[in-house]
Amino acid sequence: MQHPAHTGRSIDTDHAAEVGGFRFWFVGQRWEWSDEVARMHGYEPGSVEPTTELLLSHKHPDDRAHVQELLDQALHGGRSFSSRHRFVDTAGAVHDAIVVGDRITDDIGAVVGTAGYYIDLTGTLHQRRDATRQEVLDEELPDLLDARAVIEQAKGVLMAIYRINGEQAFEVLRWRSQETNTKLRVLANQLVSEVRTLPPSSGDVQRAFDHLLLTIHERVGREPES
């Protein structure tokens, strides 16, 4: 994945507060937030210096240990910081977010950090859905009609991986389409084509899914568990 650290672009984006960029440098645990990520957390851009402590203080109490574990894995294992979790802004509002990250490497290929995007699935993302509905229809309906099947497949992949709903999955696809200036159906087709190259799921996940598939009929019509 190309990201701001590799392309030389600013980590600011053009998607208001629902998408913003970040970088995390392992040496010194130094963070960089785009203006959008600062605003997501309730800060005016440039008014606060992001730190690991500040980042963790904003995580939802039920998700904080999970995020801490991911950060430890990034620092000690050279992994990217990618997650689905909740954070709390300075006003106390809870945000549901996907963090999509990739590794930053130096000239000799050593992993020196992680960079990517916050995708806020709450707040302005939902507020702008009605406002952009006509824009989506006007600009993308021909592609949607021509390639509905592959777009639905791509949405299904995102829904399964990130555990989001169909509208949120479409917004993620649409964001990447705009960010990369790639037609939505082309992007969706490439995603579906390349997802099979991912490592297979663990045995535990496979067995759990097998059990779900073979017993799902027993729960049809039941109220979902809270």
Automatic annotation (TrEMBL):
Q: Which Pfam families match?
A: ANTAR (PF03861), PAS_3 (PF08447)
Q: What range(s) does the ANTAR domain occupy? A: 131-192
Residue ranges occupied by any PAS domain in the UniProt entry: 33-78
* GO MF annotation: an example: RNA binding
Q: List, alphabetically, the PROSITE patterns matched.
A: ANTAR, PAS
Q: Per its record, how is this protein called by name? A: Transcription antitermination regulator [Nocardia brasiliensis ATCC]
Q: Which organism is it from?
A: Mycobacterium shimoidei
Task: Kindly list the organism's lineage.
Answer: Bacteria, Bacillati, Actinomycetota, Actinomycetes, Mycobacteriales
